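Long-time lurker, first post. I've been practising inverse folding by hand and with some scripts of my own, and I keep getting stuck on stretches where the structure tokens seem ambiguous. Below is the full token string for one chain I'm working on. Before anyone asks, I'm not after the true native sequence, just a reasonable design that respects the backbone. If someone could post their per-position residues I'd love to compare against what I wrote down in my notebook.
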């Protein structure tokens, strides 16, 4: 527990007894209309999370919560504290409450040996100052499906079947876990996470939009290992808008499998547009689409913001594509254990990296947020040098480090939990 003289708030763990207050605060800050079911659902999610509150006397004035998840990193998975519900009451904003909450949050991460923290930002301008870097990016895609989808490859011709969403964790869980090794940035999911955060099976009913219920389509016959799947919703045409398909998630084991799923989605009768709100920047669809006027990128945006809480643990746990030996001068204003000069040594690919303090001259100087942006392999460091954010002191050092942390696929994060 800490009491901040700057904010006059006491920062401490939120006990179960205060869950009602926590739900009230999230409703206030995120402008939510929660009925009884919505409150119960929110409370249940918070109950299982790491929760830190900023109290004004006994009133909860700010909070941050985190799900304890596992995230795919190059070559494996690591525990991650996935921040959520970060909010401060309008009466207490811009007095340093968030800063105090995060200071306490780092202590919890250290105590629980969580080397990484991540979040989806409500506003991109907030979290860089706390050491988070935009580690995965996504495209929004739009397909003109008023005409047949034209592709340059033949789709997988296995059957497609619709699945009851309640069966999705059992049918698709193992497939999803296999996909984690294909690209970093995705979360491992247990059945509860699938139900609550992916399929929304425990959500309170809301009529906020005119899309129908979530549908699950799977490639491959029952009993066969799936070749891929898509989660989507549809909307019929009305006087103002054409019928549309909204793709929440599409995962496929191969390009032909992806082609089969996109062809299915684009062919749904009484719809003429497919929207996909979060697709990997290296989505193969963009290559195998025969007509790029038909498949368009409408937006590119950051998805997951990543913070290396324990830089050494994070760097030595991931795999590397090439040997490298560089001294990094890392600035970390919030976590002194990360701050300073360290030698990163990577031997043959497949061998463990080492990260040791050194007094040797630095080859590269950078802020910890830049390490967060590059860690999963989505951002080459040279782009941050070009942007004036990273200093290369030894010519060639950045090129060598970029070759070492490059990954086969770009990282991607499917769910905005
Ligand atoms: C992971 C998630 O949950 S994302 C959701 C984030 N929450 C929301 O958007 C809900 C509505 N907003 C809020 O609850 C609050 O305004 C918060 C949580 C964003 C900020 O809380 P505050 O207590 O006001 O922040 P605090 O006073 O500690 O500010 C810390 C720093 O962040 C900056 N900051 C805070 N909010 C913003 C913002 N919206 N945009 C840019 N900078 C911001 C402050 O200027 C300050 O900068 P400095 O210390 O470098 O000078």
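-- Answer (accepted) --
I ran through it position by position. Result:
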């Amino acid at each position: 527990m800490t009491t901040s003289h700057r904010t006059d708030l006491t920062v401490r763990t939120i006990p179960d007894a205060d869950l009602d207050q926590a739900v009230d605060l999230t409703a206030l800050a995120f402008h939510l209309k929660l009925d009884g079911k919505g409150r119960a659902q929110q409370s249940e999610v918070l109950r299982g999370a790491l929760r830190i509150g900023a109290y004004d006397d006994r009133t909860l004035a700010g909070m941050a919560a985190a799900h304890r998840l596992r995230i795919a990193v190059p070559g494996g998975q690591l525990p991650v504290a996935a921040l959520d519900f970060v909010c401060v009451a309008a009466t207490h904003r811009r007095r340093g409450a968030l800063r105090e909450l995060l200071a306490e949050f780092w202590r919890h991460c250290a105590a629980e040996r969580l080397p990484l923290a991540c979040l989806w930002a409500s506003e991109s301008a907030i979290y860089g100052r706390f050491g988070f870097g935009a580690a995965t990016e996504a495209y929004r895609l739009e397909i003109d499906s008023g005409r047949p989808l034209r592709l340059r490859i033949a789709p997988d011709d296995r059957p497609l079947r619709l699945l009851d969403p309640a069966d999705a964790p059992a049918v698709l869980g193992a497939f999803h876990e296999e996909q984690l090794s294909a690209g970093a940035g995705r979360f491992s999911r247990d059945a509860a996470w699938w139900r609550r955060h992916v399929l929304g099976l425990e959500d309170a009913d809301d009529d906020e939009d005119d899309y129908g219920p979530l549908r699950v389509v799977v490639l491959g016959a029952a009993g066969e290992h799936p070749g891929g799947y898509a989660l989507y919703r549809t909307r019929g045409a009305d006087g103002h808008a054409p019928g549309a398909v909204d793709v929440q998630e599409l995962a496929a084991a191969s390009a032909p499998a992806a082609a089969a799923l996109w062809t299915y989605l684009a062919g749904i009768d009484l719809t003429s547009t497919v929207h996909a709100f979060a697709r990997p920047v290296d989505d193969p669809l963009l290559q195998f689409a025969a007509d790029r006027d038909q498949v368009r990128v409408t937006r590119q945006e950051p998805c997951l913001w990543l913070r290396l809480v324990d830089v050494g643990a994070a760097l030595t746990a991931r795999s590397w594509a090439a040997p490298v030996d560089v001294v990094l001068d890392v600035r970390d204003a919030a976590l002194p254990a990360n701050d300073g000069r360290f030698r990163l040594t990577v031997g043959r690919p497949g061998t463990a990296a080492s990260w040791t303090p050194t007094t040797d001259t630095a080859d590269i100087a950078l802020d910890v947020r830049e390490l967060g942006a590059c860690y999963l392999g989505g951002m080459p460091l040279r782009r941050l040098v070009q942007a004036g954010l990273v200093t290369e002191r030894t010519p060639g050092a950045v090129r060598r480090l970029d070759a070492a942390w490059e990954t086969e696929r770009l990282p991607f994060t499917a769910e905005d939990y």
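A couple of notes from the structure itself: Residues 76 and 318 are 7 Å apart (CA to CA). The radius of gyration is 23 Å. Happy to go over any region you disagree with.
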